[in-house]
Backbone:
């Protein structure tokens, strides 16, 4: 092994793209990227390549150098207000990039001063890791915002956890699947129904932390099955 | 946002992506991204796409250099990232012996305030390898600083200045600001052809594919051409060209704003008179002009009387509409509507109309999409429009010849 191996560049997706993909899978969520223009543009372009309509729900604080000194509160409030005027979202998502993450603004507190919507903040900075980590953290921060999970059960139904639009598997439909959170569009209120499944099937390592969280908080057990196509796993007709 | 014709807005871009160009077609260059690891993905993508585009356009298959990343963590953000950078630079020197290591800092070292410049000097002194720190920290790039021109200037200062010779080589030309990655193939090839006709056999376009020996040879260059396209800051590029010309004590011409056939003729003939190549250049210009005239005649037969919609993608491109509108009218297209894209602010509308109509006369304007026979657009990065014909903004004739040929080919059929 060469000693240069540890300095190799990243060839995977960024945490920001992963977090954006997870948060935007909630179809009534408006997303603010708390980041400079360039990082926002690249994230938005990456999402638009996969789902052009999702990218329309992305806003950005477009922070600049001075904001690092004086704080980005004003820009965050402006973005939150713009979002509120533009559409009737059920939840607000904020993905935080490296610069603002180092500043340590109270993002949720700032946003709550102008909106009564639930605000879901996710650390999507380069410190967080890669896209899978960004996706996973964003999904968990979304689930934390669910006030009450449903008590009902749908026998035989499963949730597929770990699919992401940045890394699409099969786009066919299956009979036994209740939800594919973080990939298939869902309403914010539908997140509460994830607990109705009998089991969560983890199809990618990025979904593991989410499945564990769901097991802990909704008592839905999970099974890991990374290999082969989803259709085979689910016994598609 | 208020649009003032001729004035640039500050465009905030990240310095990391352009840094990748230093390693394109330069196997003895290493670029170190000093930031969190995921940012290097952006540079990697740029490196691959810009490198491929450069290879396609220039036909040069020279190997690329290396990209590395220090991969700063949250701990480094607290305790400083300099030690990591030092280890990375030392490992690179030990393993691949590059001619130069270009260090580019992202926003994290900028926010935590590491003194990376001092560290780079230290490592250079210890290892004997040239270590150049590029300006800026991610999105925190000082106004009028462009990574590509800065990179070329820093290496020029390091390697060329000590080699400046009083005796010049008439065959060496230095093109400052142009990277093939930001030009169209037609434009790049035409520029090279024209410079060859003017007697230059060695044309150097730093920083892409330019080695230390090339920089040293630049000390004998007899001409500097300032030529900027795409993402470059035009003013920074022009100042850089002027700086190089002064240091070399040679003439400089600025071809950045040469974007029409008429302007190209003037620029080419002016340089030809300095180089005593008027005859050959006159022949070249006449040949290209007669091709253009012939094509416009063909176009007149093919698309006369049709309607045309031009989508203006961004405000600053309003100034580039004069030539295409003139060509459309020469082909008998009078019904021309300019559709302003959604990202153009409402405040800019009046200024845009005034700029365009002063030069082109009255046109129709719309904020909504309109139906038309001929559909053109001005921005190449809008993927949704990629099936439409892109209006060039180019030096010389080839780009315009290709543009008219495409119109005739695509829209020259009879009306239903």
Residues:
């Amino acid at each position: 092994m060469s000693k240069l191996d540890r300095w190799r560049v990243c060839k995977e997706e960024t945490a920001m793209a992963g977090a954006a993909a997870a948060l935007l899978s909630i179809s009534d969520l408006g997303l603010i990227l708390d980041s400079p223009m360039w990082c926002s543009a690249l994230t938005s372009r990456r999402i638009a390549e996969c789902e052009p309509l999702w990218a329309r729900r992305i806003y950005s604080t477009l922070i600049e150098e001075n904001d690092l000194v004086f704080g980005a509160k004003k820009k965050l409030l402006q973005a939150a207000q713009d979002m509120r005027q533009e559409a009737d979202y059920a939840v607000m998502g904020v993905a935080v990039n490296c610069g603002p993450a180092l500043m340590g603004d109270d993002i949720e507190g700032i946003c709550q001063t102008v909106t009564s919507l639930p605000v879901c903040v996710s650390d999507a900075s380069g410190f967080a890791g890669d896209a899978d980590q960004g996706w996973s953290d964003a999904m968990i921060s979304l689930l934390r915002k669910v006030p009450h999970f449903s008590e009902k059960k749908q026998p035989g139904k499963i949730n597929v956890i770990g699919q992401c639009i940045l890394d699409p598997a099969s786009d066919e439909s299956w009979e036994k699947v209740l939800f594919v959170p973080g990939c298939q569009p869902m309403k914010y209120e539908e997140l509460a129904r994830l607990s109705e499944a009998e089991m969560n099937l983890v199809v990618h390592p990025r979904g593991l932390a989410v499945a564990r969280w769901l097991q802990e908080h909704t008592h839905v057990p999970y099974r890991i099955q990374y290999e082969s196509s989803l259709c085979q796993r689910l016994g598609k007709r | 946002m208020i649009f003032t014709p001729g004035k640039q807005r500050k465009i905030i871009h990240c310095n990391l992506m352009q840094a990748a160009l230093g390693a394109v077609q330069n196997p003895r260059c290493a670029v170190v991204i000093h930031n969190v690891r995921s940012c290097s993905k952006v540079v990697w993508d740029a490196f691959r796409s810009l490198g491929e585009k450069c290879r396609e356009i220039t036909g040069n298959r020279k190997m690329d250099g290396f990209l590395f990343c220090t991969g700063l963590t949250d701990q480094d953000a607290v305790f400083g990232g300099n030690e990591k950078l030092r280890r990375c630079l030392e490992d690179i020197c030990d393993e691949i012996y590059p001619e130069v290591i270009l260090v580019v800092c992202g926003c994290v070292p900028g926010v935590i305030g590491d003194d990376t410049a001092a560290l780079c000097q230290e490592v250079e002194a210890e290892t004997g390898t040239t270590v150049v720190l590029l300006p800026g920290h991610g999105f925190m790039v000082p106004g009028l600083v462009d990574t590509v021109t800065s990179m070329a200037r820093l290496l020029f200062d390091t390697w060329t200045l000590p080699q400046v010779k009083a005796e010049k080589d008439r065959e060496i030309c230095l093109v400052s600001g142009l990277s093939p990655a930001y030009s169209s193939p037609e434009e790049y090839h035409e520029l090279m052809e024209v410079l060859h006709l003017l007697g230059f056999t060695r044309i150097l376009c730093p920083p892409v594919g330019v080695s230390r020996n090339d920089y040293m040879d630049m000390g004998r260059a007899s001409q500097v051409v300032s030529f900027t396209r795409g993402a470059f800051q035009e003013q920074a590029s022009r100042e850089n060209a002027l700086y190089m010309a002064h240091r070399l004590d040679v003439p400089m011409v600025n071809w950045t704003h040469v974007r029409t056939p008429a302007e190209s003729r003037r620029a080419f003939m002016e340089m030809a008179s300095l180089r005593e190549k008027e005859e050959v250049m006159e022949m070249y210009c006449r040949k290209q002009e007669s091709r253009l005239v012939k094509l416009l005649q063909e176009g007149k037969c093919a698309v006369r009387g049709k309607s045309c919609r031009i989508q203006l993608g961004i405000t600053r491109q309003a100034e580039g509409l004069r030539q295409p509108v003139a060509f459309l009218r020469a082909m008998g297209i009078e019904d021309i509507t300019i559709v302003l894209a959604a990202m153009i602010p409402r405040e800019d509308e009046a200024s845009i109309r005034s700029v365009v109509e002063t030069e082109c006369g009255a046109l129709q304007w719309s904020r909504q999409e309109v139906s038309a026979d001929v559909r053109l657009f001005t921005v190449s990065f809008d993927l949704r429009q990629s099936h439409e014909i892109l209006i060039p903004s180019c030096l010389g004739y080839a780009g315009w010849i290709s543009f008219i040929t495409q119109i005739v080919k695509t829209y020259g059929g009879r009306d239903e």
